[in-house]
Amino acid sequence: MTDTTTDDSTPRRRALREAAPFAGPARGRRRHRVLALSFVVMVLLPILASGFYLYTRAADQYASTLGFTVRSEDGTSASDLLGGLSASLGGGGSASDANILYEFIRSQEIVRKVGATLDLEQMYTRHADTDPLLSYSTNGTIEDLTDYWQRMVRISYDNTTGLTELTVLAFDPADARQIAEAIYAESSRMINALSDVVRDDATRYAQQDLDLALERLKTAREALTAFRLANQIVDPNADIQTQMGLLSTLQTQQANALIEFEQLRETASSTDPRLDQARRKLAVIEQLIAAERQKFGKGGGGEDGVEYARTISDFERLTVEREYAETTYAAALAALDGARAAASRQSLYLAAYITPTLAEKSEYPQRGLILGLLVLFSLLIWSIACLIYYALRDRR
């Protein structure tokens, strides 16, 4: 029997042999080689170079930690209790003071002041030959030194609590602590200088207010003395009381004379001389009463034409001015005493809750963190570059 399967498959096998050959092994194209080369250049080489530098050339850095806060003087003097006016003269440990201190620590001024006591260039160029990237250049200017200072002195400030913490880096632990101590000393001097300016201004202004109040008091007293000399009256109120007593006495005499006159008119004849005498006595008393009453109104009697109502008004006005001047003088004197009391003590000062520490081991540079960030950003940059390349290629 003939095998039909073999016969039928022969033409099929022949057709398969005559068909196109299978695809050969994949070959890399030019863009693949460019991507691989870019990966090496943008990722591997920076990581390897950075790792080599960090672990073989980079010098160890030591950190000294310093923490402080701005405090205000809470003491109360006797003048504060009397006047209550010097509470605002000494200032307080507000957020603005801490912000000023924050900017001062980062400024060129503190670099100059610390550099005057410490050789910062020698401290920061200790490993300049072996570690040129993380060390300071000896040929730099004060601006360059300030930039490097801001890298080596790290400040952390909390607006809520008002706490300021510094991390001072140096290539030697003793240098780091010395720099931290110098920063604390210069910051204390600066905050004290600000407080001195406030206290000096407050004292000067209080002295000016006192001088003005004293002149006002002198003027008021001189005006009152001139009034007394012009009117020959020490106390118009006492003089009025005297006049009122005299008027009351005359009115009593008038009443008695009137009663006597009425009795004589009823019992005596019209030609009785006693009746004329009583009438004249009553008229004299009425004239005296009228004269006394005129002294309390306009067109007053007497040679000087004293008007008691106006006199009393002028006296009361001058008295009020004198009392006001005395009150102002007492308040100004209390304010000056308070300002002087505040000036005699330190209103603002730095309170260190962490004194400058001395490191026992190197914590900087943070090599693992730096390499990790370098790997992350290198891969991100390389990936973004690849995406941009393919996006531009697909648009062609």
Automatic annotation (TrEMBL):
Gene3D superfamilies, per the entry: Tetratricopeptide repeat domain (1.25.40.10)
Keywords: Membrane, Transmembrane, Transmembrane helix
Membrane-spanning segments: 34-55, 369-392
Region (Disordered): 1-24
GO cellular component terms given for this protein: plasma membrane
InterPro entries tied to this protein: Bact_polysacc_biosynth/exp, TPR-like_helical_dom_sf
Top-level division of the source organism's lineage: Bacteria
One function term, GO molecular function aspect: protein tyrosine kinase activity
UniProt protein name: Capsular polysaccharide transport system permease protein
Organism: Loktanella atrilutea
